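User: I'm curious whether this sequence folds into something compact or stays loose and floppy. Could you predict its structure so I can see for myself?
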Amino acid sequence: MAKGLKKSERTKQKLIKAVISLIQQGDRVISVASITKKAKQAYGSFYRYFDNLDQIHAIAIETLVLSIAAEEEKKLSKEKSNLFKVYYVWYIAIDIFKEDNVANWLMDHPASINDTWALTQPMTSGWVKTAIKNKEVPNLSNKNLKHFEMAQQYIWWMYQQALRELVKGRKSLDVYLEIMQSINFLDLPRKTHQSFLQKVIDRAN
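Assistant: Here's the prediction. I'll summarize afterward.
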């Protein structure tokens, strides 16, 4: 935790981190008492920063997802194909939350996870824009970008179904491929679309 933060902000971050930790260790029932105990803070400190449990859950989801997105963006920085980055990061978005406790948590807060996915759109749209500029595939244009930005709404909507499938025990790669086969989210030629999916399969295995 950054040393430069004020004490009040450090306390707030400890409470958020406590929620994430409790979820990851498998707790399904999260209370103010369990959060403050995990964070080693006074019970009353919770209400200095949050109105209710829904609010801290929403912020915790945003914190977790955006931190993972930043990590993946860094890992993919040397990847030459920006279009592959878009395909692969959506596989990661499914695979990273395959544990039942985390998947159930996200299903309990669908609006929060969808709002957070919207915050990642500048990153993925930026990759598509760079791919257009670099002419990564023939005839790639702003029409593909517009199609992608609309298609992402569908993927966010389908994400809850993806989580349900993961909880049933299905492999994350199979769930990902099922979604991607249902929508060509960049409106690429089918052969090109399939080639990127194959690259994701190769990297995931």
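Summary: DSSP finds ten helices and no strands in the chain. The two ends are 34 Å apart (CA to CA).
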